[in-house]
Amino acid sequence: MPTEIPVVEKILSANDRIAAENRQLLDAHGVVAWNVMASPGAGKTSLILRTIEALRDRVRIGVIEGDLAGRVDADKVAAAGAPVVQINTGGGCHLDAPQVQSALARLPLEEIDLLFIENVGNLVCPSGWDLGEHYKMMIAHVPEGHDKPIKYPNMFVVVDAFVLNKIDLIPYLDFDTDAFRRAVRALNAKAPLFELSCKTGEGVDAWVEWLRSHR
Amino acid sequence: MPTEIPVVEKILSANDRIAAENRQLLDAHGVVAWNVMASPGAGKTSLILRTIEALRDRVRIGVIEGDLAGRVDADKVAAAGAPVVQINTGGGCHLDAPQVQSALARLPLEEIDLLFIENVGNLVCPSGWDLGEHYKMMIAHVPEGHDKPIKYPNMFVVVDAFVLNKIDLIPYLDFDTDAFRRAVRALNAKAPLFELSCKTGEGVDAWVEWLRSHR
Q1: What is the pTM of this model?
Q2: Is residue A144 within 8 angstroms of chain B, CB to CB?
Q3: What string of DSSP letters covers chain B?
Q4: Do residues A105 and A85 touch, judged by C-beta distance below 8 A?
Q5: pLDDT one-digit tens code per residue, B41-61
Q6: Best residue in B141, B152, B157 to probe A by mutation, most A CBs within 10 Å?
Q7: Nearest neighbour of A150 by CB, restricted to B69, B125, B147
Q8: Rounded to whole angstroms, how far apart are CA atoms B13 and A69?
Q9: Contact B69/A125, CB-based, under 8 Å?
Q10: ipTM of the assembly?
């Protein structure tokens, strides 16, 4: 007859266990990591490139790029002079901690202060997976409309910072900025919201200075 | 000792079995169903509203709306006078056949010729799930950039029609239309591509007339 053994420790999932290892590795090297989430085409890579440019000679930035296929974004980051590893998920709709673990092994962590982990473009799945990052952020963009917090609330709840990108397009679209701000605040009272344009550069300084101080 | 029994029939997954039932139900009522897929904010509901408006008094359109939360889109469709059912997936990143089955039970199928099933805004997960539709389509939109076929190929491969929405924004963005067309054709040689703007109405007629004839 089997003996019943009480389970007294929380058993982490395989993903969460490896995420914890990733965080330990990052901490050991003094690297602060951000999980960057957004819809496809919201401007994740554009914001990372703007941030690299603005913090050059002050903060050493590394990048992990996640996409189903291709290396378009990794090539752009490499051209900007930052160490970068591309992860291709095949059909996978989000990054997971084992994928990030293998990418970390290929990055010069001793030469990196700040790591951006650019997730697969998707407003749903990435929000539920711990990669070992310290902070989560999301980028909304004006063309996707101001109603996204209502339709995709999960991601808005979990992030530590919001960026609203492509504010230069507001004159050409029916985007209600006040309605967007209210919908964001109904889900997340704390995370700051930076409204900017990666194309024109408007508002990028405020984001970069906040990021630099938030470590 | 167990007897080995050869498996001679393809065993459908629970989803595919219910998808087949949905298709039978639709066929029995003469309803042609389209699974409409796209990123968040690409203009799925806007295209559906434009199509309802253009085909009024000629084709009776019904709609199933899929979102994680809320009923923003269903309210818009109802205001346009079309029968509509909203599905909320909670955290789910795509619709599935059982959800559509329950929605079909709440629609007046005998009064519908054409059914749009608007999937959750997501370029990844919806492409792998049969809902019982007859055709799949996707809407790309200019602000998400011309490189999406390279990064999210799976969906581009499986669809029967493409719409590129928001062409009115091309003057304000670095969108390379030729590069987009080439990348689409590298993945899918057959599905027609309609370039239009739901905002201005440009190009909508060609889409609507093709849709009407494609039954």
Answers
A1: 0.91
A2: yes
A3: -PPP----S----HHHHHHHHHHHHHHHTT-EEEEEEESTTSSHHHHHHHHHHHHTTTS-EEEEEEESS--HHHHHHHHTT--EEEEE-TT-SS--HHHHHHHHTTS-GGG-SEEEEE--S-SSGGGG---S-SEEEEEEEGGG-TTHHHHSHHHHHH-SEEEEE-GGGGGGS---HHHHHHHHHHH-SSS-EEE--TTT-TTHHHHHHHHHH--
A4: no
A5: 999 999 999 999 999 999 999
A6: B152
A7: B69
A8: 27
A9: no
A10: 0.88
Is residue A88 within 8 angstroms of chain B, CB to CB? Answer: no
pLDDT digits (tens, 9 = 90+) for B128-179: 999 999 999 999 999 999 999 999 999 999 999 999 999 999 999 999 999 9
Judged by CB atoms closer than 8 Å, whether chains meet at B69 and A168 is answered as no
pLDDT digits (tens, 9 = 90+) for A5-21: 555 445 568 999 999 99
Inter-chain CB proximity B124 and A93 less than 8 Å: yes
Cβ contacts (< 8 Å) between B144 and chain A: which residues? 39-42, 143
